[in-house]
């Protein structure tokens, strides 16, 4: 998968299971509200992963993650670089 302009390896397990079972796929987002306080919300990536091609769930997730990081780069851990 292309992630911030670089080829990045991603484990296929979640993608394979979600597509095989035809499950809806959600992603959670965490935002720091203030010191020691965080807010979490979930968003739907796709209602039926069986409709996606192999790697589709992973591609959707990585695009959304990249978007989240661009919106709030201070929350991105240095260890993930």
Low-confidence stretches: none
First-to-last CA distance: 15 Å
Strand order of the largest sheet: 1-2
What order do the SSEs take from the amino end to the carboxyl end, as H and E?
Answer: EEHEEH
Structural class comes to alpha+beta
The total of helices stands at: 2
Q: Give the strand tally.
A: 4
Rg, Å, rounded: 14 Å
- Let me know the largest β-sheet: 2 strands, antiparallel
Q: In which range does the helix fraction lie? A: 25-40%
What is the global morphology? globular
Q: Whole-number average pLDDT?
A: 89
User: Which band does the percent of strand residues land in?
Assistant: 25-35%
Please provide a written account of the structure.
With 81 residues, the protein is α+β, with helices and mostly antiparallel strands. Helices cover 31% and strands 30% of the residues. The strands form two sheets. It has a two-stranded antiparallel ribbon with strand order 1-2. A two-stranded antiparallel ribbon has the order 3-4. A hairpin with a 2-residue loop joins strand 3 and strand 4. It is globular and about 40 Å long. It starts with a strand and ends in a 10-residue tail after the last helix.
């Amino acid at each position: 998968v292309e992630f911030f302009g670089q080829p990045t390896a991603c484990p296929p397990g979640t993608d394979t299971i979600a597509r095989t079972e035809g499950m809806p796929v959600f992603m959670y987002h965490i935002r720091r509200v203030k010191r020691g306080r965080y807010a979490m919300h979930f968003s739907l990536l796709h209602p039926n992963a069986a409709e996606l091609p192999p790697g589709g769930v992973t591609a959707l997730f990585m695009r959304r993650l990249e978007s989240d990081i661009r919106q709030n780069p201070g929350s991105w851990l240095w260890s993930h670089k």
